[in-house]
Amino acid sequence: MFRLIFLFIVLGLGLFVGTQFSDQQGYVLISIANTTTEMSVTTLVIFVVGVLAALYIAENIIKRGLRASSATWNWFSVRKLKRARRYTNEGIIKLLEGDWQAAEKKVTRWANHHDMPILCHLIAAEAAQGMGDETKRKKYLALALELDKNSLAVEITQIRQMVRNNQYADAHAHLEKLKGRYPNNTIVLNLLKKTYQHLQLWTALDELLPKLKKTKLIQNEEYQTLYYQVQLGKMEEIGSQKGTSGLLAYWSNLPKKLKQDENVVRLMVEQLIETKGDSEAYVILRDSLKQSPSALLLPLLTEIHLPDTYPAIVLLEGIVKKSKDHAEANSTLGQLYLREHKWPEAQNAFEQSLKQRASVTDYSYLADALEHQNMHQAAGDVSRKALSLMTSK
Hints:
Layout: H1 2-20, E1 28-32, E2 35-39, H2 41-97, H3 100-109, H4 117-131, H5 134-147, H6 152-164, H7 168-181, H8 186-199, H9 202-214, H10 220-252, H11 256-259, H12 262-274, H13 278-291, H14 310-322, H15 327-339, H16 343-356, H17 360-371, H18 376-392
Antiparallel strand pairs: 1-2
């Protein structure tokens, strides 16, 4: 537009000057080598304006030609891009359907024309993973890494596949690097949970649990399961490395709230029994039962190997005296009476237990106590009850 205005201004000035000096046109001589050209000033002005006009027209023709070529090129490029996207979308559908070969074929066919070829390579890697083709899986991941070495999507895809292939040590090494860069990424946190569990990194998982719960990656039920799994894992680790003394040191450093948790008490007692620390296990169990005679903890009294069962019997007799209808306390007391060959006392304890709930085990113990008192018919009746209870289940 500016050139056009300039051209008209020059043309106007030329006409004005030509009119003013029509009687005095002047003289112009142009000499190049052996060639000379003569013309008036007016003719020169008109010639210059004509040349400028011709150049302007030529420029527009060239521009339009180039624009047409560019439009044609863009049309083909957009057509290829649309086709690449369509094939990629179809490949994703095939991947979701589990048709791994079709998914790989579709996403790789036009990957070079896609505006995000890294996406095509990642989908192809997932398809190769589904087919179990390790060579192709690594090839597609390598192609994706060539496009973007710092892509989180590529790293997460790679780690997920390591976890699926049970390569937890390799996955853990990659995740530890990502953990610092993406501390709140839910996918990274979930993958960390899986690797910690399989590698039995209980301390690390214990530190991770609050964040998993805060981000709602685990519900309360799973949180409780993992929480006690972590406690057991830590105790087993300490027990295998440091034995009874290590477990007692760990117990002494636990918060009071944990020491009052019957599940934690049960885990600690079981681990102390494993490390032959039965006397220490009894002390912890006794203190807990004095505070609350838990049905979960009472059976552990029969698993502890004590040189003298008298203290345990006294403890149970005190619990039964306060709560005569405590089925688990009566059952545990009856078992300790059997060890001491106190048949009448055992009989009474099991009868009290069976009044509260039917138990095949207690019926069997009761039959044993009756047999030792030569009460064969009663023992037979009790055995038949136990058998009928087993068949009814």
